[in-house]
Amino acid sequence: MSMDADDSVTPSTTQISQAAQWLIQGRLVAFPTETVYGLGADAENPQAIQKIYAAKQRPPNHPLIVHLAPDADISYWTSDLSKQAQALIDAFWPGPLTLILPRAPHIPSAVSGGQPTIGLRCPAHPVASALLSSFAALKRGGQGGVAAPSANKFGHVSPTRAAHVRSEFPELPPDQLLVLEGGRSAVGIESTIVDLSDTKASGEPVLLRPGHIRPEQIAEVLGVMPGRPNAASPQVSGSLKAHYAPRTPLQLVPSCDLQQSIRENALLAAKNDGRIAAVVFKATADSGLPVDYYVCPGQADAYARDLYDILRRLDDQAYDALLIEQPPLTVAWQAVNDRLGRAAAAFL
Ligand code: TXA
Ligand code: MG
Fold first, then answer.
1. CB–CB of 68/79 below 8 Å?
2. Mutational test site, ligand 1, from 53, 64, 111, 185, max ligand atoms within 8 Å of CB
């Protein structure tokens, strides 16, 4: 499952300042981050935010993450920068961690889908940092944040390359969406989200979305394991049961059932001259069946980096089915299993 490098050209300083100007004008700019590409707009401009929801076809009550430059004043955005929040920021920013905090009253609620909280994240990607700093410098008072969900249609696979973003929004001409290049996203799946906004009244941090930064790393900093979301937790679109889905039917298959399931599905596909794809941990001898095998990394971080890219590639090849060997059910694989489980749930 190794992918060719996309040795994209890094945007010039001129392109970065042009992109920052677009954001100031209330226009959309897609930009790379270390997790996935984001579809960005000025977080304090409700009309610009509206363009994100329209482009993504996303329900308007789903809050967006605000992306900040490394030197941003976080207390501009939240009314309660707690010790816990500051400790996580010191440990993991810039990096793939989003914090949900109480929203400062002067920040328009549009960015949070009307919720009293705000999602904040400082991405670790040179192009994102340059854009965010350049944008903030143009804003009054030097404070500015870029609201950005993953740059894909609602419910679809997140983009990890600039080319993915362009193919997600064919209806947006270049004068409506500027896409900054930044190569392949190194993490490959969306940020870990920790809610510190006291939703459970217990004050316990809540893990809303698993990611590259694992719960035990959060616990090392806070001294307490983040809890699981309950019914009172805010709505997270990534927490919908069916999400992150490709278009080709996808099944997660336990290793012990793999050979039989491949055989059954391949025989079925063969009846219509079709083929299936199987993403497996070990190469298998050719069976003569219409199956293409893709051997995936055996290590969770490497698997996460390739995951959306391989799903998109396989989706483009019009297979009758994608069979994915279930990775180990261990904490190291929690984030990958979370995304695979939701992708498969779309077809149950
Ligand atoms: O890695 C990432 O987080 C990427 C990159 C672009 O930064 N962004 C991303 O955004 O994944 P999105 O919108 O696809 O997912 C953000 C999740 C959503 O599920 C949203 O509901 C949740 O974060 N979220 C944002 N603000 C929130 C808030 N105030 N309360 C609860 N959940 C929030
Ligand atoms: Mg998303």
1. no
2. 64
Nearest to 109 by CA among 123, 99, 119: 119
The number of the ligand nearest the C-alpha atom of 304 reads 1
User: d(Cα 145, Cα 67) in Å, to the nearest integer?
Assistant: 5
Mean pLDDT in consecutive groups of 10 residues from the start of the chain, 348 residues: 55 96 98 98 98 93 96 97 96 98 97 96 98 97 97 95 96 95 98 86 86 97 90 58 80 96 96 96 87 96 97 94 97 97 88
Q: Is 35 in the pocket of ligand 1 (CB under 6 A)?
A: yes
Statement: the pTM of the whole predicted model exceeds 0.85: yes
Q: For residues 198 and 80, give the distance between their C-alpha atoms in angstroms, rounded to a whole number.
A: 11
Please tell me if the CB atom of residue 212 comes closer than 6 angstroms to any atom of ligand 1: no
Burial of 234-249, coded b for 16+ CB within 10 Å and e otherwise, reads bebbbebeebbbbebb
Which amino acid is it at 49?
Answer: I
Q: What is the pLDDT of residue 200?
A: 52
Q: Give the DSSP letter of residue 344.
A: H
CA of 43 relative to ligand 2 center, distance in Å: 17
What letter does residue 92 receive in the DSSP assignment? H
pLDDT at 287: 80
- Taking alpha carbons only, the member of 138, 158, 146 closest to residue 65 is 146
* Residue among 345, 341, 321, 347 nearest 329 (CA): 341
Strands (E), 117-191: 117-121, 146-147, 177-179
Residue type, 5: A
Return the pLDDT at 237.
Answer: 56
